[in-house]
Automatic annotation (TrEMBL):
Region (Disordered): 323-342
Cofactor(s) named in the record: Mg(2+)
Domain GGDEF: 519-649
Ranges where the PAS domain occurs: 360-405
Pfam families named in the record: GGDEF, PAS_9, SBP_bac_3
Organism annotation: Methylomicrobium album BG8
Protein's recorded name: PAS domain S-box/diguanylate cyclase (GGDEF) domain-containing protein
MF-aspect GO terms: catalytic activity
Length: 649
């Protein structure tokens, strides 16, 4: 019965609660800032924070223009705990907020999804909020339960959001019903204008409480945790991202829940009613059925709990072992001398057992101490102090074992990914296993290394956690290769510019922002003039050099918020957000001028030209493919007429 209540409450809570937070018994009492961090805060008395003003309950502006919501309250707590003065940045469209932070006119964006391409301009904390998408249907509809059930149905969604762009692509057979706000989205289902709507879970809960809506229900999740929100900090202030992460880490689960449930109703209490006819073995006349049900269940539950604890204790005792370091080469295992008072057979058994243990210790010592190229091993006591580290740490990091034990905390870098390490060790010391985690440290030459640590709690014979065993592998090369692969998946290897995939993704984002905020933007399509003859005359090496120089010229011309991409060969594309016709013409004219400047190659001056086609949103097209086709056609028009650039296809 108790388990059933808990399961029901958990299911209900999962449909509403969207806090991404660690599970811990207590939060640290204070924030441990380094001397460098304290000095930095002393020099920066005011931090400008940009809030999205149209996404309740995460952040929104009320009727008086004041910012409210979950993220705003969390920043109030961070301000109090870190003694930082946060100043709200004036209300702007999302595109303008993004640009302001990229240009350092705003210091922090309170909620932003951490994507690889954004790391060029921002430092991110770990995600602290998530947004799941929900399927909302009419209360009487029992057929729509999953996204696959939307086929052929009328589906409402809010215009201007990135997820809205993907709904029709994923479900081409739906009948779209776009609306202007999430409240209209819910109301359209209640008014039977749509069969279902897709919106954020917490937003739906907030609006349901603020504007009581009838005839609708939560049918299921459309997508779960697809937009984890982090705090984004301007690119030249990585230290602030680390400070804010420390502030987030000390917010307790109780504090976060209090903030969340201030804006989103908590899950309702669930009661379980046991009907008489649910127990067929008891008749209605039975006094046990009428009066003794609780007395019968209580002993049953008691026995069940006792049995469960007993089984659990057996499982724990199977894994019990002491946290003692392996013997060093100069400290062989101690073998107790034979006791002359013991019977002969028993004495021989003890000696054999001691010998076996000594051999086992030798094999274990050789295993962990001689594999120096692959890993090292260390142990911590219950207080977190390192008590042993294998000699192979010297081969990997250059530190002697005693140096590593004494200076471990000083060898940890200021990388934000390291901020959660102490919490993970604390969980281990509480006897809670953790998944392998990464840690960046300095070696003896101050070079950075990435380590992967597999940790395991160690128990005494009574089941108490007395320390942690850690096995450490170096993964620096793997991390570099992973980062390189991520970078290559979004960039052109020769020029370093964005590739077609990243350009299309940013173009889709610009479309979503423009639909939401009614802001114009432009796409330029470029083709170099004379590039083929250069390749034929001087070879591919000269062509590659010219392409690199063209990329440098483009990047020197564009703003930080603009995107330059190489589509292949000598074709390039530019994305200019928040740009009208006059600004587009100015940029195109400047590019034509700098492209006519000679490029030096092996002492020879090489000259190239360029033809540019321009597509304006929303004048020329309203989707990605159409904008690119129009810009491409305009480029050919400019090339044929020798115009340099053209707005006409």
């Amino acid at each position: 019965m108790i388990a059933l209540c808990l399961l029901v409450n958990c299911a209900l809570a999962d449909s509403t609660t969207e806090m991404m937070w660690r599970s811990q018994a207590t939060a640290p009492l204070s924030i441990e800032l380094t001397a460098k961090e304290k000095a930095w805060l002393a020099r920066h008395k005011k931090i400008r924070v940009a809030f999205d003003d149209s996404l309740p309950p995460y952040s929104f502006a009320d009727s008086d223009g004041r910012f409210n919501g979950i993220a705003v309250d969390i920043f109030d707590e961070l301000s109090r705990k870190l003694d930082i003065r946060f100043e709200p940045f004036p209300r702007k469209s999302w595109n303008q907020l993004y640009r302001a932070a990229a240009e350092h006119r705003a210091d922090v964006v309170a909620t932003m999804v951490d994507r690889p391409e954004r790391r060029l301009w921002f430092n991110f904390t770990h995600p602290y909020l998530t947004k799941s998408l929900a399927l909302i249907t009419r209360e009487s509809d029992a057929e729509i339960k999953t996204p696959d059930d939307l086929a052929g149905r009328t589906v409402a969604y809010t215009k201007g959001y990135q997820f809205s762009e993907g709904i029709r692509k994923k479900h081409p057979s739906i009948k779209p019903h776009p609306v202007g706000s999430m409240l209209e989205c819910l109301q359209s289902v209640g008014a039977q204008k749509a069969d279902a709507c897709i919106t954020f879970v917490a937003t739906a809960n907030y609006l349901q409480a603020k504007h009581p809506l009838t005839g609708i229900k939560f049918a299921g999740f459309y997508e779960r945790h697809t937009a984890d929100e982090s705090i984004a900090v301007r690119g030249d202030w990585p230290i602030l991202a680390g400070i804010l992460q420390k502030g987030l880490d000390v917010l307790s689960e109780a504090e976060m829940n209090a903030i969340y449930f201030k804006w989103v109703p908590p899950p309702p209490e669930v009661s379980v009613v046991v009907e008489k006819n649910a127990v067929p073995a008891l008749s209605e006349e039975s006094p046990l059925a009428e009066n003794g049900l609780q007395e019968t269940i209580s002993p049953f539950l008691f026995l069940f709990v006792i049995g469960y604890v007993w089984i659990w204790s057996l499982r724990v005792r199977r894994h019990l072992r002491r946290a003692s370091p392996p013997p060093r080469q100069d400290e062989p295992a101690r073998i107790p001398p034979p006791n002359p008072q013991l019977p002969g057979d028993f004495e021989r058994m003890l000696l054999k057992r001691a010998t076996d243990l000594q051999n086992y210790d030798i094999r274990f010592r050789n295993l962990i101490e001689n594999q120096s190229k692959n890993y090292f091993f260390f142990q911590c006591d219950k207080k977190g102090k390192i008590t042993y580290v294998s000699p192979s740490v010297t081969q990997m990091l250059g530190h002697r074992p005693d140096e590593f034990i004494a200076g471990f905390q000083h060898y940890i870098t200021d990388n934000p990914e390291n901020l959660s390490v102490n919490n993970l060790f604390e969980l281990n010391r509480q006897g809670i296993p953790c998944a392998p985690f990464a840690l960046e440290v300095y070696d003896s030459g101050d070079e950075r290394h990435w380590l992967e640590i597999t940790s395991e709690p160690v128990y005494d014979e009574f089941g108490n956690c007395i320390g942690v065993d850690c096995l450490v592998f170096e993964i620096t090369k793997r991390r570099q290769e992973d980062e390189r692969l991520i970078w290559l998946s979004f960039h052109d290897e020769l020029t370093g510019l964005a590739n077609r995939r990243l350009f299309i993704e940013r173009l889709q984002q610009s479309l979503a922002m423009a639909n939401r905020n009614r802001m114009p933007f432009a796409v330029h399509y470029l083709d170099l003039d004379g590039f083929k003859s250069l390749n034929d005359r001087l070879g591919h090496a000269a062509g590659d050099h010219a392409l690199k120089e063209v990329a440098k010229k483009l990047m020197a011309t564009l703003r930080d918020t603009d995107t330059a991409a190489r589509f292949g060969g000598d074709e390039f594309a530019l994305l200019l957000p928040d740009c009208d016709e006059q600004a587009c013409a100015s940029v195109a004219k400047k590019i034509v001028e700098i492209m006519h400047e000679p490029i030096s190659y092996n002492g020879e001056a090489v000259r190239l030209g360029v033809s540019i086609g321009i597509a304006l949103y929303p004048r020329n097209a309203d989707n990605c493919d159409a904008l690119l086709r129009y810009a491409d056609a305009s480029m050919y028009h400019a090339k044929q007429k020798r115009l340099g650039y053209s707005f006409e296809a």
